[in-house]
Structure formats: structure tokens, C-alpha cells
Amino acid sequence: MAVAGAVSIAVLMAVYVAKLRRKETRFGEAFEPMMESGELVVRYRARRTYSRRTTEATLNSLGISDELKQKLQDVMVDRHKLTLGKTLGEGEFGSVMEGLLTQEESVLKVAVKTMKIAICTRSEMEDFLREAACMKEFDHANVMRLLGVCLQTVESEGYPSPVVILPYMKHGDLHSYLLYSRLGDCPVYLPSQMLVKFMTDIARGMEYLSNKNFIHRDLAARNCMLNENMNVCVADFGLSKKIYNGDYYRQGRISKMPVKWIAIESLADRVYTTKSDVWSFGVTMWEIATRGQTPYPGVENSEIYDYLRQGNRLKQPPDCLDSM
């Protein structure tokens, strides 16, 4: 009996120790022992939204470069924290949807950029994610910032598709807002003071980008967003570049470019600087002053370079004061 009792006690102790070890393994990453004033203190260390191992496994499934994966690791968001709503706009390669992002103590209304992954190349997906990685560096009231990136499974394809989470902009893009204020079903007069404020907001945002050595290369009213407080945020950084050496960027491969917003030297030599962004800012101010008209009316895209070389420039809008 004594032997049987001893064996039973030994078995119970072994089970108890095993449970302790399993518990230690389960919570070992979440609790961190520290020494304070000679005493052992156990503090809870909050987990990230994604564990590093899970994040790497998820990003690895996209087949993107190691450099890009490294940049995206700290902005990944759990998919179950994002609820998608109605579609706000749709293009050839993706759409923008309304969404709700669950945070620690609140639910935030957001805009979600998605990709039509089935028709996009890997290079296009990298460009999409590179734009998001670029935006995570920005922190300015007049520059669009990144809230996060997550992956959703495309059931029809069986592999994940990246989505980019951005602040919700109630009034949409500035060009559409200007156009509808003039040509919509219920036209609204925009006073000069408001137009000047739009210009000033963009100037502040572009100054911030310039100070961080970014050139935008695609500044236009359509790429500026208007929030609920009527503040303009510079957005759409798909063509932006960070300058590391010197003060210019030379475009290597030919791609579709918004020629009516591009500086003449960039059209000639494919060289971009902060000064070429200033040219684009001037064209954007013309758009604002005309309340959404297309620059160089009557001039085809293919004719714009010769038109500018002949000394032609945008004409002063009819209701634009000389002081502006």
C-alpha cells in the first residue's frame, strides 16, 4: 500500500509539473520577469497585433522583396479587426471601400484601398505595398498617413490580397469636389478665401514632403483629399520617390505620366526635383482657381511639350485676382 501510495503521489506531482511547464510555455512570451530594487517583478508585455513569426509567414506568402517585408512588419493589422462596407470608388486595378477599424478603445471609420489581385502582376502588387510603406513615414496634418496594412483571402483565387487602410476623407478628392461645386445638381459657390485655404494646405503638405527629401511627381487636385473639416491632405504617393543622393531623381523606364502637370524639363529629360513639384503645384493652383477645369484646354497631351517650348503657359483664370 505504501509503495502504491508513493507511486500515486509521484504521478500526481509529474502531472502538476507538466501543467506548470505548459502554462509557462503558453504565457512565457507575454510575461517578462524583471529585477527592481532587488525583488523579482513580473510585468505583462502586450502582444503586437501580429506576432513576428505570423507576420513573416503572412508576408512571405506574397513573394515580395525582403526589404519591403521588413518595412511592412510593424504596420500589419489583423484582418478580423477590419470590417468592409460600401464601395466608394472603383478603378481598373482596384477599388476604395468604406470600412471600420476596431482599435483598443474605439472603432474608427476608415478608407480601404484594395487590389484586383487576379489581374495584377507581382510588380504592380509591390508598387501598391511600396506606396503604403512610403506613407508610414508621414506625420503631418496636410499629408495622408497610413493606418495599417492587412491581408484578406480571395476565396476565388485561394491566396491573400493586400489592402491598405487610410483615414476616411468625407468629401473625397479635391478635383471632384471643385467640379461638383460648379457643375453639380446643386452648385455651391466657393469663395476665394476657401480656394486660397486649399492652396495653402497643399503648400504646407508639400513643404513637409520636401523637407523629408520626398518628391511627389504626381501632384494634382485629383490626388489631394478633403476631410470633414475641409482640410486638404496631399495623397496618392504611387509615383513618389525619396532622394538619397543629390537633389534629383531620373526616371528609368517609360511609364504613364500626367503630362499636363509635369514640368517642361521633366518632359524633356525625365528628371524630377522638388522644383518640378513646384511646377505641378502651380498647375494644381490653376485647377483650384478655375474650380476643377482641365489645364491647357484644347491642347492634346501629345502636343503639350511643343506647346510649352513655344513659350505658352496657363492663362490667368477670369476670376483670379492679380494679387493671387
TrEMBL record:
Primary localisation category: membrane
The keyword Calcium belongs to this UniProt entry's keyword annotation: no
GO cellular component, one term: receptor complex
All copies of domain Protein kinase, residue ranges: 82-324
Pfam families: PK_Tyr_Ser-Thr (PF07714)
EC number: 2.7.10.1
SUPFAM superfamilies linked to this entry: Protein kinase-like (PK-like)
Gene Ontology MF, one: ATP binding
Protein localization: Membrane
The organism's place on the tree of life at top rank: Eukaryota
Amino-acid positions noted as binding ATP in the UniProt annotation, renumbered to this chain: 113
Alphabetical keyword list: ATP-binding, Kinase, Membrane, Nucleotide-binding, Phosphoprotein, Receptor, Transferase, Tyrosine-protein kinase
Biological processes, Gene Ontology terms: cell migration; cell surface receptor protein tyrosine kinase signaling pathway; natural killer cell differentiation; negative regulation of apoptotic process; nervous system development; phagocytosis; platelet activation; positive regulation of phosphatidylinositol 3-kinase/protein kinase B signal transduction
Reactions accelerated catalytically: L-tyrosyl-[protein] + ATP = O-phospho-L-tyrosyl-[protein] + ADP + H(+)
Cited PROSITE patterns: PROTEIN_KINASE_ATP (PS00107), PROTEIN_KINASE_DOM (PS50011), PROTEIN_KINASE_TYR (PS00109)
Topology in the lipid bilayer: Single-pass type I membrane protein
Protein name: receptor protein-tyrosine kinase
